[in-house]
# Entry
Amino acid sequence: MVSVTVNDVGPRDGLQNQPKILAPAERVALVRALLKAGMRHVEVGAFVSPKAVPAMAGADEVLAGLANGEDNGAVFTVLIPNYKGYELATAAGAKSVCMVLYGSDAMAQANARMSREQAESATADILKQARTDGVRVTSTIAVAFACPFDGPVEPSLVEDIAGRFLELGTDELCIADTIGAANPRQVRSLTASLVGQHGPERISCHFHDTRAMGLANVFAAVESGIRKFDASIGGLGGCPFAPGASGNVATEDVVMMLEQMGFDTGIDLDGLMHASELAQELTGTAPGGRASAWLKRYLKRTGN
Ligand code: COA
Ligand code: ZN
# Structure
């Protein structure tokens, strides 16, 4: 069976934009529910300015809370927007960071008050330091298909950035449709080209479901050979600095689709539904997966 890895970004991308701010202990509880379902990759927070994103304050406490428990070798990643974020994250014990690159200047400015090139140069510095520190780095290209300010992004630009950061030795290169603007044909074309040039091992994708094409985009990418996806429990999510961005594609939908297609995610759907219910209980706003009603009926019937 071919394995596909799902990285749940709910505790970061999902929670950063919620009206209700969760305490670090509640975020730890959500991560633990995901681990219980067999999830082995979770983005657990962000080391960003608490003034810019109040919901991510206390990411150090989340990491500390997770350090005291059974994690079965799970990879806990934290998002960072700049070198200062790297320093804060590693001082708090992070072993895996996700640094943000951009398909446009306007998004780099809105998100991190940098130009696109400044973000690239900061990422190159972080990669160098991370190698010395033994820290894993994901380089995520945000707004890889379209920017809410500057419009469509040229695939050749994204391929150029991806090629350079793979060459620099990033452990993972994530193509992110931050505002959910991509269609499956664009996704198929870009991911097939990237997989053709670099192989699938270090490339992942991150889709939002703003225009109901999230799952179709996962399908297009998996058909091109991509074997790692970000998704968010309960479909939570949205970037506070990208107007119009809605939630990530829901983890429960992605896992259900991949498993039905014959891939092995190692994740238990029943456990995932419990995590999704907890996300809803904690936030009051998790929309749930599109297949939630069916999944609940099906799991009850099969006694899982
Ligand atoms: N974490 C925490 N604090 C940070 C920081 C980080 N990664 N980077 C900078 N800061 C602090 C500075 O030390 C400074 O603190 P002070 O006011 O106590 O002196 C303050 O933030 C402002 O710093 P400045 O360099 O002037 O930055 P800014 O106000 O232009 O904000 C960012 C820049 C990057 C810190 C801020 O925009 C940010 O955190 N963005 C993240 C956005 C995000 O999370 N988006 C969603 C995920 S893609
Ligand atoms: Zn996102």
User: Anything to note?
Assistant: The pocket of coenzyme A (ligand 1) is lined by residues 16, 46-49, 52-53, 79-82, 84-85, 88, 100, 111-113, 142, 239, 241 (CB under 6 Å). The radius of gyration is 18 Å.
